[in-house]
Specification:
3 strands; alpha+beta; 80 residues; Conserved hypothetical protein from pyrococcus furiosus pfu- 392566-001, ParB domain; 11% strand
């Protein structure tokens, strides 16, 4: 599995666009204040399937992201 700072987005993550810097900073502030509410979904190799905006916001906030590994037959992104 890839280290936290080395996580890459799987092509399926492109289903959801990246937020603007302003939006990511706002999400980072919210995560720092309220915590991360939805886990980041990764495949067994550590690539982000769903949650690359949350991952970047956690990085900006200095918060350890909540990660959940899913098997390849269940990658169904549901959150931005």
């Amino acid at each position: 599995m890839l280290a936290k700072s080395e996580r890459k987005a799987h092509p399926v993550a492109d289903l959801f666009p990246m937020m603007t810097d302003v939006e990511l900073d706002e999400l980072a502030a919210d995560i720092k204040e309220c915590g991360q509410q939805i886990p980041i979904l990764v495949d067994p190799s550590g690539e982000i399937l769903d949650g690359r905006n949350r991952y970047e916001a956690c990085r900006r906030a200095g918060v350890e992201p909540q990660i959940e590994t899913v098997e390849p037959d269940e990658p169904e992104p549901a959150h931005a």
